[in-house]
Design brief:
- This protein has about 180 residues and is an all-alpha fold.
- The chain has one domain: LemA-like domain (de novo design (two linked rop proteins), Up-down Bundle).
- Helices cover about 80% and strands about 0% of the residues.
- Helix 1 runs antiparallel to helix 2, helix 1 runs parallel beside helix 3 and helix 1 packs antiparallel against helix 5.
- The chain starts with a helix and ends in an 8-residue tail after the last helix.
- The relative contact order is 0.15.
Length: about 180
């Protein structure tokens, strides 16, 4: 009789352990989805700022048509992108285009002093910080989920929980990798 209780107790503990592992995987999978949704919310917010920023700069630098077109095209691609890799790629292209737009603005002191431009630039900067935090949150959750999926016992519960390895959000932004040119002339 005692042997039966031990076997039943072990089976109950295994079931509880299995349920805990399953729920952990599902919870992390939901956190990854939530993280990606936050990235998309912040990118949408940034995308909504761009038309106002472009129009403000256009008023001062109308002959910079190519720069404006690059920003508008990059924004359109970013808005249409689907999936982690495509959104990250479009995000990088838009970031580069915005750098070009802000570089144009530096050549116009009146624009740099414009209250509207300064307000938009400040809001864009705040949004960029929020995008960065959202990316970090997403990637932290992807790392945690992937670590569990490739490890034991998570590997055994990933299939039944319908959870797969997720890809990291990596922005291909060559401008961030450039070595700054420092000159002491």
């Amino acid at each position: 009789m005692n042997g039966t209780y031990v076997i039943v107790a072990i089976l109950v503990l295994l079931v509880i352990f299995g349920i805990a592992q399953y729920n952990k995987l599902v919870r992390l999978n939901v956190a990854v989805d939530e993280g990606f949704a936050q990235i998309e919310v912040q990118l949408q917010r940034r995308g909504d700022l761009i038309p106002n920023l472009v129009e403000t700069v256009k008023g001062y630098a109308a002959h910079e048509k190519e720069t404006f077109e690059k920003v508008v095209q990059a924004r359109a691609k970013a808005t249409a992108a689907q999936g982690v890799a495509a959104v990250a790629e479009a995000d990088g292209m838009l970031t580069q285009a915005l750098r070009g737009l802000l570089a144009v603005a530096e050549a116009y002191p009146d624009l740099e002093a414009s209250a509207n431009f300064l307000s938009l630039q400040e809001e864009l900067s705040g949004t960029e910080n929020k995008v960065g935090f959202a990316r970090q949150y997403y990637n932290d959750n992807v790392r945690a989920l992937n670590e569990i999926i490739v490890g034991i016992p998570g590997k055994f519960f990933a299939g039944p929980a319908n959870v797969v390895l997720r890809e990291f959000y990596v922005v291909n932004d060559p401008g961030k990798r450039d070595v700054p040119n420092v000159s002491f002339n």
